[in-house]
Amino acid sequence: MKRILVTGGAGFIGSNFVHYALAETDAHITVIDKLTYAGNLDSLAGLPSDRFEFVHGDITDEPLVEKLTEASDAVVHYAAESHNDNSLHDPRPFLDTNIIGTYTLIQAARKFNKRFHHISTDEVYGDLAIDDPARFTENTPYNPSSPYSSTKAGSDLLVRAWVRSFGLQATISNCSNNYGPYQHVEKFIPRQITNVIDGVRPKLYGAGENVRDWIHADDHSSAVLTILEHGRIGETYLIGADGEKTNKEVVELILERMGRDRDDFEHVTDRPGHDLRYAIDSTKLRTELGWKPRFSSFETGLDNTIKWYMDNESWWRPRKAETESRYLEQGQ
Ligand code: NAD
Ligand code: DAU
């Protein structure tokens, strides 16, 4: 694939993918991004101008999406409203971007017969009980809990329908919780790292017993590239790195690695409808396409991430105060 259109490439995972794909392939990448509060052009600074172009735009803008899709060989669709807490307070942008935006893109990919890869989340499957040994597979029934995850589930179903009804050349991946550089400070791990840098105690929703299955953003990128190049059209692949941890374990680890007492955190108001546990079985991706994660140790990946936030305060500082005042209003 010579020309890849990446939607949401100024966000956390999209920008990591752009850096990764420019290093690992000789493709030209065009990013379309609306630069919402979650987009940051600094995440794409210094990329080679002969292989990278940035277009400021909205994925619901049909003429723009058609123009950019026609000029590309493949579309990798990351753009979304991505934060569960925001979706509980103002769901509308989630419907506009996650549903109508995806619809606009798959219509264009269909019109110009382009390869399409849809990025999605394990949250479409709902949650598992803490003590249930089961993990999500590609056959787990959809059962989303929040406005965010229900709009992602809706977008997945649109892509599946366009494959079956219109022959769209699409694949879908559903990944677990990502961590790494360029993640907005509203999200769990960067919020706590930057709190510790500021001398503020990390905040755990409820008892902190909820489990998330962590994967480094670079490993998500390598999986997406593998699926884009070798995945079977119409298939869904689950992406995960066997990284299950309770939120309390993650906070304790952050405190320990940053030289503070492991119990120097506080409990705050829980998230309404808070999913208990996510866990991914990525056997299909590993056996069928031969993918495996590079970051086998969460501790190593976390150390790199802590160092990145310590070294790149100018990247996150402008967003910290506003994010914390939003959380304060919600008692979180
Ligand atoms: P993010 O919020 O960091 O970035 C989203 C990007 O999309 C931002 O740059 C934003 O400006 C852009 N955007 C939003 N609305 C747009 C619109 N209408 N038009 C164009 N651009 C728009 O999100 P993220 O955490 O990087 O997530 C990226 C994708 O990966 C999402 O589809 C999300 O559902 C999925 N995902 C995320 C995780 C995770 O742990 N963060 C895990 C699995 C899947
Ligand atoms: O599973 C994939 C999903 O992971 C993605 O689809 C979403 O886009 C992404 O935001 C993430 O969703 P979560 O809701 O799991 O991530 P978040 O970082 O918001 O929270 C992770 C866990 O930490 C969750 O159980 C809530 C908890 N939490 C979060 C914050 C911000 C806290 O305990 N304290 C906090 O301050």
TrEMBL record:
UniProt xrefs under Pfam families: GDP_Man_Dehyd
Molecular-function annotations in GO: dTDP-glucose 4,6-dehydratase activity
Keywords tagged on the record: Lyase, NAD
Catalytic reaction(s) noted: dTDP-alpha-D-glucose = dTDP-4-dehydro-6-deoxy-alpha-D-glucose + H2O
SUPFAM superfamilies: NAD(P)-binding Rossmann-fold domains
EC number from the UniProt entry: 4.2.1.46
Domain NAD(P)-binding: 5-302
Gene3D superfamilies: NAD(P)-binding Rossmann-like Domain, UDP-galactose 4-epimerase, domain 1
Required cofactor(s): NAD(+)
Family, as annotated: Belongs to the NAD(P)-dependent epimerase/dehydratase family. dTDP-glucose dehydratase subfamily.
Protein name: dTDP-glucose 4,6-dehydratase
